[in-house]
Amino acid sequence: MENENLRYGDFAYLKVKEITNFGAFLDTGGDKDILLPFSEQSKKVEQGKGYIVAIIVDELTERPIATQKYRKYINEDTAALKVGQEVNLLLTHFTALGANVIIDNEFEGLIYTNQIFKKVKVGDQFKGFIKEIRANGKLDVVIQKQGVEAIQNDTEILVNYLKLHHGFAAIGDFSEPTLIYRELGISKKAFKKAVGGLYKQKIISITETGIQLIKDVLPEGE
Questions:
Q1: How far is 188 from 19, CA to CA, in rounded Å?
Q2: Positions of CATH 2.40.50.140 in the chain
Q3: Structurally, what CATH architecture does the domain formed by 147-213 represent?
Q4: Which of 6, 23, 60, 172 has the most Cβ atoms closer than 10 angstroms to its Cβ?
């Protein structure tokens, strides 16, 4: 979602452009900035810094304004969501458990720390998948697909990567998770599953320095 197209009910990460006697004006990237009144600030903001806000309508002026008290506008009815559903995520803050995100500009969820395989920061937007819908409606989210479909997709990614690199990749169990994610876009755990499946099907061989493509084909079932 482009910030200049913000509408009522949207959530966004916006930077403070100017602080005035009325509050802080946030940069939307468009022709008009949006006001974050002092009354709608949950903590004092600083010029140049970014904050997560919701777009609401001022009751007096009937004009759109921003509020840092965005959690009041989260939809807690998650019944329409499904496990495995692809969603858009906006990272709002970190906790001891992981990263809290706004899902599809409407719901709130959590990505556990052990499910985060790349560097992310507050304000980042990326795709994800619903992993679990708890009895209380709370949502657990992952960045990668889960289950058989994910494994098949990961093996295809790996084979295609090998094809693009003349059949060899200097990546293996010895590689750091960050390197694997940077090169393939998957976690080390997913990488090891893909390697194991391809090795069993004798599509790759494993060496001390990496993995070698033996057959120029995709795995069975792809």
A1: 45
A2: 3-72, 74-142
A3: Orthogonal Bundle (1.10)
A4: 6
Find out whether 14 and 2 touch, Cβ atoms under 8 Å: no
Q: Which residue, 105, 187, 200, is CA-closest to 146?
A: 187
- Residue 129's Cβ-count burial label (10 Å; 0-12, 13-18, 19+) is middle
Q: What are the DSSP E strand ranges found in 68-138?
A: 86-94, 98-103, 107-112, 125-133
Report helix, strand or coil for 191. helix
Q: What is the pLDDT of residues 41-66, one digit of tens each?
A: 999 999 999 999 999 999 888 899 99
The CA-based angle 28-32-120, given to 5 degrees, is 5
Give the CATH superfamily of 3-72. Nucleic acid-binding proteins (2.40.50.140)
What's the CATH superfamily of 74-142? Nucleic acid-binding proteins (2.40.50.140)
Q: Are 126 and 143 in contact (CB under 8 A)?
A: yes
Find, among 39, 36, 38, the residue nearest to 54 by Cα.
36
The predicted-structure confidence for 104-122, as pLDDT tens digits, reads as follows 999 999 999 877 877 889 9
Backbone angles phi, psi at 192, to 5 degrees: -65, -35
Q: How far apart are CA 126 and CA 81, in angstroms?
A: 18
